[in-house]
Amino acid sequence: MSISKKRLIVAGVVLTALATIALSFHFRWSYLELTNDHSGAVLLRARICEGEEFAVSYIHSVNISPVKEFYQILQGRIVLTAMEFETFGAGMPTTLEVGQTLTRLPEGGMRIDGFDRPISGLRYMVGRINEQVLHLRAEQIPLNTLAPAGQPIHFAFVYLNIWQRLVP
Question: The pTM is what?
C-alpha cells in the first residue's frame, strides 16, 4: 500500500473520530437528577421524558398522616400537578383554587388535581423519623437510602450528553 493511500485512510479515520466526538456533544438525554443540596454530589440520575410523572410520599409532620405529591415534567420543568392526603389540617390545602378538582379516594382520603405549579427549587429534607419515598415508574426509592437524615435533596430536570453522563 502506498504512503499516500495510508495517509488517506488515517485522515479518514481521524475525521470520522472527530465528527463522532463533535456529534456526541450535540445529542442529549433527559434525566431526573437528585443531588445533595449541601455538597452538590449527585445521588441519583434516572431517565425521564417530557410528560412523565413521578411522586414523593411522606408522613406529614404536623397532622401525622400520609401525603403524596405528584409532579410531571412539562416544557422542561418540574410541575406540581396533584396531591393526595388523608385529612385537612395545618400545611394542607383547605380550599380549591381555580382549575382544581377534589376527588374522594375509594380507599379513604382525597386527591386534588390541577395544581399546575412549576417548582424551580424542589427540595425534600431527608427525615429523621418519617421516610420520604420517590415513586418513579414501578420503582420506590426511599430518600434515606440516598442521603443521611437531615440532608436536603434537590430535584432537577436536566439534559446531559454522553460525556456529562459518564462524569458525575
Answer: 0.81
